[in-house]
C-alpha cells in the first residue's frame, strides 16, 4: 500500500449488527447477504464476521461469487440470482444452493444428466409476489415446480422465498399484499421446506416474520435501508465502512486562481487548497464536487471538478502534507454518514460502497487488530 487512500471496514460493527438483528428477530436464522463483494466491503471478511455474530448462512448474487467464497466458508451458501441450468452440476459439486426461478428452469435441471458421484443440488424456490423480478408467478407454477423437484433424485428442496419491493417505505400497501400472496402459497404447499425467507433488512427491522430466515444486507453493514426506516430503528446500527486519504500537497491560491478541469472554481481571495489522492476512478465520482470532507474534525468542501485520481479541497488554514482527510466516517465530533453522501448525489447508500473501486484497499479492523484483505497484518 503505497498511496495513502483506503477504506476501513470495522468487522466488530458487522458482528454487532448481526447479533442485534438476531435478538430483535427472536433468534431467527440470519442469512448474511454478501453479494457484490459484500456491498463493496469485502465478501470473505464480512461473511466470516457475520457468521461470528450468529448468521447461519450466506447469500450471493451469482455462482462466480459463490465458488471463491466456498473455499473459506463452511456455512451454507445460496445464489440469489439466475444460474444457467448448464452450470447446475458445478453448483452441486461446490455445495452451493441455487434459486429455482421458474418451472422451465426446474424442468431443465431435472432432465439434465447428473454424473455419478455428483451430490444433489439444493434449491430454493423463488416466488414473485410483486417485485416483478426473478421468480415464479402464482400458486399453480409453484406447486408444479415443487412436484418436479420432489420427483427428481438430484434435486433437494431446501427453501422457498420471495423478495419485497417496498418494505423500506412508509406506505405498507404493496408490502402487505406481497406477504398475503406468499402466505396463501405457503398454505397450499404440501409441507414447508427447512428454510422459508422473505425479509430483507427493512422488513426484518420493522416486522420480523415468525419461523423465517432474514436475508440481512444493507443494515448488516450498519446502513439504513431508507430514511423512513432509519427514523424508526428498533436498535442502533453501527456503520462498518469509512473512507480516508491524506493531503498529498497543500498550496496557497491567490485571488483569481482557478482549480481543476474546466476551471469551475476560482478563488475569490487568498486561500489554502489541499490536493487529495482520490478521484472518480476510485469511485469518488464527479457528482460529489461541492460535497464536504472532514479534516481535523471540521467539514470542508471539495472544490473544482473531481479528476480521475485526485480532487481538491478548500482548507481553512495551512495544513501539513500527510494530514488525514475522511471522506465518510468519523473525525472527532463530526461524522459524514454514507446516507448523506448518497443524498448529495441523489442515490441510495447501497450504491456508494459498491462504487469504490478495487484500487481502494480495504483495511479490516477487529478489536486492536488491523489487516489488509491479503491477511497482511499492519499493526
Ligand atoms: N434478498 C434479495 C433477493 C436481494 O436482492 C437483496 C438486496 C437482499 C435480500 C438484501 O436486501 P437489503 O440489503 O435491503 O437488506 N438486493 C438489492 C438489489 O438487488 N439492489 O439493491 C439491493
Name the features.
379 residues, alpha/beta, TIM Barrel, Lyase, Ornithine Decarboxylase, Chain A, domain 1, 2 domains, eleven-stranded mixed β-sheet, eight-stranded parallel beta barrel, 27% strand, binds ligand PMH
What top-tier CATH class of the largest domain fits best?
Answer: Alpha Beta
User: By CATH's scheme, which homologous superfamily of the largest domain applies?
Assistant: Alanine racemase
What's the gyration radius in Å? 24 Å
Query: What is the total domain count?
Result: 2
What oligomeric arrangement do these chains adopt? single chain
Helix content class: 25-40%
Total strands: the figure is: 21
Contiguous helical run count: 12
In percent terms, what proportion of residues is strand?
25-35%
The CATH architecture of the largest domain can be given as: Alpha-Beta Barrel
Taking the sheet with the most strands, its summary is: 11 strands, mixed
Mean pLDDT: 97
The ligands bound in this entry are: ligand PMH
Uncertain parts: none
- Protein structure class: alpha/beta
Q: What would the principal axes of the Cα set say about the shape?
A: elongated
- What is the CA–CA distance across the termini? 14 Å
Q: What is the CATH topology assignment of the largest domain?
A: TIM Barrel
